[in-house]
Design goal:
heterotrimer; A alpha/beta (250); B mainly alpha (299); C mainly alpha (328); A: alpha/beta; six-stranded mixed beta sheet; four-stranded antiparallel beta sheet; 9 helices; globular; C: mainly alpha; ABC transporter involved in vitamin B12 uptake, BtuC; binds adenosine-5'-diphosphate; binds magnesium ion
């Protein structure tokens, strides 16, 4: 869904220039550049091992690129540590789910609200409670996150990333492992939250219908390189993208 | 200039002395690294087990067993003992978390220390050295004893290093520690590897103890003043690097010997404290140790 | 949750509150109920209990292993006794807390670099190393060398028995304050951040938690409480020397934490009692092997703790399942 005019200005402008990451000989990112306008949702697609998660790790600061720059509203992130990036509005979900097992559902969300938002404790708590309710998690808010089913865990992750007051939201396969109904639910949540908050977002996704439904633009990666960048319609017909996916499938 | 020459001799003497103690630190540090590489445990009771082995050797000697026979029998007994401890104590606790396993090693520490105390009492005993304690030749800067330690210790270190890096068993041991599940899938007998790992570590500890005993006081607390240095060696060298442990041990041995002679005012008490200031500094500047390549964590 | 479930939860919560209240009343009334009986041992047990609370904060909730908490006790006791004659005992104990916090922060910095068993071993080595320090001849003029230090804190009581009761109440009050403080600390922003850092440091960082700051702070706070406990305990005994708080105390504190549940604060005082009373019992069983008895009992306890579910299953005759990928 295209960014709503009213929300423009609350999302950050992201500019990535010639990003490179190597892991012992493997080039996980091999000179990737990418731009996102404030409030834009960019789908990031590519076969497994293409470097999508590594791209996210660079932006959120857990992996240090060997070369290249990442600019947020024109300011380079440089060597800013991960928690400082979160506090200026770079929040994320994790492909492999990284809920905090010692904390209950509400406290997982509340932690993000009070850390990333740097707000007063009561305000953070209220924010978290509201978000937990909005995502339909209030019945389990006081329960442990440990035994929850994947669908619910993904939603808690989503709530947590949104509680951090994102200006740039990084979503790493938010519907992976979900049923069709749960997937529709996540899409609806993302639309509503995006409309309300206007964040910029990068969305890594394997399910094409989800990418198509949410993205303003799509970027395709393969072997750490950007092989395509365009509207959903154009990407769907792009021969390089088709080859990368067919090649990965064969 | 005579004075200048004299100080060079003193320096050389201290370096060689340090290398001898360092060789023992290296061995113990290597034992720590081996256990870590094969089980991902860090054995708190390593020093106590080494003391038990050394006192066993002393017992054999006092019964009239010849030196090298006692040495070999002790190594064999230690291997069996280490493997048995893994099988009987650590294996049944494998389902516990890191806290439980650490507590188990604390219990081992207490058990072994208490048993050695009960059997041999707190008194110090004399332990023979491989080579006689007098200088090798007239005016030599080092005693025969320490030459023996360097030679035997060095040989053991080389054998172990080659074993871990080159042999099939060594590879399997390392694979087990790195990731037990795929190792098991690849057909490695993971449980047996862990027993062997503990056995080897106990054997190395025994060798280190027997080399060390002649130059320190052999009593149930023998390792208390040694283990901190061995541990420091693993930090200096990097906890996952056998070569680092060896070099770290030698470096610490030499530094300790030099500090002893050039800053005698520190005394043993402050020397230990300084050692930890140094460890802390290394951890802050180069946390992965001086000999390990940096790798990133995976999200 | 069913209505019944909620009710049961409420009763349990009320029950817990009732139990806590009952234990508190009993603790306050103890000197009246059993005048003179073992009161000194109780006071010491509470001091060690404070140390275990500190350890639970650091290890149970923060996930950082410390086998060096005896060093905080020792540092706290020396600082308290060195300063008490000039600035008074209460102020000296406060400074002892600060000094121990600094040592804690230092170990916390090390803890940023090494984790788990390695940190446990490092802190143990620190306890071993510092343990010797007061004996050093260079420090002897301040620390009293191997003969130690004496100090008699002024209390509004003259007879030894009355002093014992005073000490009991003072220590009890401090213990209560620290335990309640830690309870609320764990439910604060800092407490959530601390547990997040333990659960998954990378994820916590990505959520905005300054994990380094949180971990180092936890070590400092834990050290401060243990240092205060050490200062108090020194006051109670009236005499310290280098072996008042040997490295074995670190072991006892760690074990006291493990066996009373790493994440249960009130049970820490049970752990404190274990420290004071169990070695005596073990000694009664067999004097030469008392530590072996202690170690053996600990192993048995750990074995039950780890394997209880499986053993129960076997007793009830059901198939025991084993995880494919154990991580030991
Ligand atoms: N921490 C790491 N260490 C070594 N290799 C890594 C690490 N993280 C990612 N890689 C490698 O980098 C490449 C890209 O991985 P990733 O970014 O996870 O891909 P994607 O998310 O697109 O599936 C892969 O070849 C992967 O094996
Ligand atoms: Mg990925």
């Amino acid at each position: 869904m295209p960014a709503i005019a009213a929300s423009v200005g609350r999302g950050a402008r992201l500019a990535i220039r010639d990003l490179r990451v190597g892991f012992g000989g493997v080039a996980a990112l091999d000179g990737v550049s990418l731009d996102a306008a404030p409030g834009e949702i960019i789908g990031v697609i590519g076969p497994n091992g293409a470097g999508k998660t590594t791209l996210f790790n660079c932006i959120s600061g857990t992996v240090r690129p060997s070369a290249g720059t990442i600019l947020l509203d024109g300011a380079p992130l440089g060597r800013l540590p991960p928690h400082r990036r979160a506090r200026i509005g770079v929040t994320r979900t994790f492909q492999n789910l990284a809920l905090l097992d010692s904390l209950n559902v509400l406290d997982n969300v509340r932690l993000a609200a009070e850390q990333a938002g740097r707000q007063r404790s009561a305000a953070a708590r209220a924010d978290a409670t509201r978000l937990v309710a909005a995502l339909g998690l209030d019945a389990i808010a006081r329960g442990p996150v440990g035994g929850l089913p994947v669908g619910t865990r993904r939603k808690v992750e989503l709530a947590r990333a949104i509680a951090g007051r994102p200006r740039l939201l990084l979503l790493d396969e938010p519907t992976s492992g979900l049923s069709e109904m749960e997937t529709a639910d996540v899409i609806a949540i993302l639309r509503a939250q995006h409309a309300a908050l206007g964040f910029t977002a990068l969305l890594v996704e394997h399910q094409m219908p989800v990418v198509m439904a949410l993205s303003d633009r799509i970027v395709a990666l393969d072997f750490g390189r950007k092989i395509a960048d365009g509207t959903p319609g154009a990407i769907r017909r792009d021969p390089l993208v088709l080859a990368a996916y067919l090649g990965a499938a064969s | 200039m005579a004075g200048g020459w004299g100080s060079v001799v003193v320096l050389l003497q201290q370096v060689l002395t340090g290398l001898a103690t360092g060789a023992v630190y290296s061995l113990l540090a290597l034992a720590l690294v081996v256990i870590h590489q094969t089980t991902h445990h860090l054995n708190l009771a390593q020093g106590e087990m080494a003391t038990l082995s050394t006192l066993t050797a002393w017992q054999l000697l006092s019964w009239g067993v010849p030196y090298w026979a006692a040495f070999a029998v002790t190594l064999a007994l230690s291997f069996a003992g280490g493997a048995a401890i893994q099988r009987l104590v650590m294996h049944p606790l494998r389902g516990g978390n890191a806290l439980v396993q650490f507590a188990a090693m604390i219990a081992l520490f207490l058990l072994v220390n208490s048993v050695t105390n009960a059997i041999w009492g707190p008194n110090a005993r004399a332990f023979p050295s491989i080579l006689p304690a007098r200088p090798l030749f007239e005016g030599a800067p080092i005693s025969g004893q320490r030459v023996g330690i360097i030679l035997v210790g060095g040989a053991l270190v080389v054998v172990l290093y080659l074993f871990l890096r080159r042999s099939r068993l060594g590879l399997n041991l390392r694979a087990t520690a790195a990731n037990p599940v795929p190792a098991r899938l690849a057909g490695i007998a993971v449980d047996r590897m862990r027993m062997i790992g503990w056995g080897i570590a106990a054997t190395i500890g025994a060798a280190a103890g027997m080399l060390l005993a002649p130059i320190v006081t052999l009593d149930p607390q023998m390792m208390f003043n040694v283990l901190p240095f061995a541990f420091a060696a693993t930090i200096v060298g990097g906890v996952s690097s056998p070569l680092g442990a060896v070099v770290g041990g030698l470096v610490i041995g030499v530094v300790e010997a030099l500090v002893t002679i050039y800053a005698p005012a520190l005394g043993r008490e402050l020397k230990l404290s300084l050692l930890f200031v140094a460890i802390l500094a290394i951890l802050l500047v180069r946390p992965e140790g001086l000999f390990v390549r940096r790798t990133g964590a995976r999200l | 949750m069913s209505v019944f479930g909620r009710l049961a939860g409420l009763v349990a919560a009320r029950g817990n509150a009732l139990l806590t209240a009952a234990v508190l009343v009993a603790a306050v009334a103890y000197p009246f109920l059993f005048p003179g009986y073992a009161i000194n041992s109780m006071t010491m047990a509470i001091c060690y209990g404070i140390g275990i609370v500190a350890l639970k904060l650091l290890t149970g909730y923060g996930g950082q292993f410390s086998l060096g908490h005896s060093a905080f006790f020792a540092l706290g006791s020396y600082v308290a006794f060195i300063l008490a004659p000039t600035i008074g005992f209460a102020a000296a104990v406060a400074v002892a807390g600060i000094a121990a916090a600094l040592l804690g922060a230092l170990l916390g910095l090390a803890g940023l670099r090494i984790k788990g068993h390695y940190l446990g071993l490092l802190t143990f080595m620190v306890a071993l190393a510092l343990f010797q320090m007061p004996k050093a001849s260079a420090l002897a003029p301040i620390t009293g060398g191997s003969s130690g230090l004496f100090y008699r804190a002024p209390l509004p009581a003259t007879t030894p028995a009355a002093r014992d009761v005073w000490w009991y109440w003072i220590v009890l009050a401090v213990a209560l304050a620290i335990t309640v403080g830690v309870h609320f600390l764990l439910r604060s922003r800092f407490g959530r951040a601390l547990q997040a850092s333990r659960d998954n440091a990378l994820a916590a960082g990505a959520l905005g938690v300054d994990t380094a700051l949180v971990d180092v702070s936890a070590f400092a706070v834990s050290g401060a409480f243990a240092g205060i406990a050490g200062g108090l305990l020194a006051g109670v005994i009236g005499y310290i020397s280098y072996d008042s708080f040997p490295y074995t105390l670190s072991i006892l504190l760690f074990v006291g934490m493990t066996v009373t549940g790493a994440r249960s604060l009130p049970a820490a005082y049970l752990g404190g009692a274990l420290i004071v009373f169990v070695p005596t019992w073990a000694h009664d069983i067999t004097s030469r092997l008392s530590w072996a008895v202690y170690g053996g009992a600990l192993l048995a306890l750990l074995y039950i703790q780890v394997n209880a579910p499986r053993l129960l299953q076997r007793l009830t005759g059901r198939e025991a399942t084993r995880p494919v990928g154990d991580v030991s």
